[in-house]
Amino acid sequence: MLLELDHISKIYGSLHAVDDLSLTVPEGEWLAIVGSSGSGKTTLMNMIGCMDTPSKGSVALEGRKLEDLNATQLADVRKNLIGLVFQKFYLVPHLTAVENVMVAQYYHSVVDEKQAMEALDKVGLADRAHHLPGQLSGGEQQRVCIARALINEPKLILADEPTGNLDEKNEKIVLDLFRELHQQGTTIIVVTHDALVASCAEREIMLNHGVLVGEKWNDDAARAAYEAAGGKPASTGSTAEGAQSGDTPIGFEDPTKAAKTGAQPLSE
Ligand code: ADP
Ligand code: MG
């Protein structure tokens, strides 16, 4: 397994932002984490991406427990294994698209304009390379961010609401890019509250108030391969209402939304 979460919690005072979650993700999987605002998605993502540490439980990447690593080793994992894409673009406003990609290269101790241009070409932005972020549309800015995240050829892409600010057309361009990366074997974990974006993933898990309340596979072949390799369902030790333990799968329905709209489950 590329990623193993073993009973992880993130606790702020009396708030369990993430409550006793266990989850394994094999290399090459495309996973979506869904749930309404405040359900703990970003907190979970930050723990996976070595940007935050769990209050309880452990996170392992490629079999290495993060809590056993020192600061330098953690920085190396973050740098060599992970590519991050955020909802907010965090581009340097006075640097051009290609220069923004080169900032990421600098962080990886290479500065090679040709390679940065290739990365932009990959996301369809070769002709925008010398524009400033302010001269680019939201979709184009997000594609610069994806080019930037790809610069070290990460095994794992973590994307937090990557299409949150995009119109439909640009959302599709970003999803097509993810599809291509997935086909090339990259592991993708995407946080989203958009059901369409989530449905592109092979598997979805749903959080509510930090608690795992659902898991759903969108790709039967991927599920079969996961189970054949000994992969277990996501589970929680939490006893909160709606919590899903490994052996009692429930329907895939956002409790918050259902309460608000009386909506039926998305499927299943
Ligand atoms: P999501 O990304 O699903 O919208 P978050 O992971 O950002 O949710 O937040 C989950 C919960 O944890 C929220 O109630 C949020 O207010 C709380 N939270 C997040 N970060 C902190 C923090 N640093 N201190 C206290 N509470 C926090
Ligand atoms: Mg969030």
Automatic annotation (TrEMBL):
Transmembrane parts of this sequence: none
GO cellular component assignments: membrane protein complex; plasma membrane
Pfam family, one: ABC_tran
Region Disordered: start-end pairs: 227-268
Name recorded for this polypeptide: ABC transporter ATP-binding protein
Domain ABC transporter: 3-234
Keywords: ATP-binding, Nucleotide-binding, Transport
Biased segments, Polar residues type: 235-247
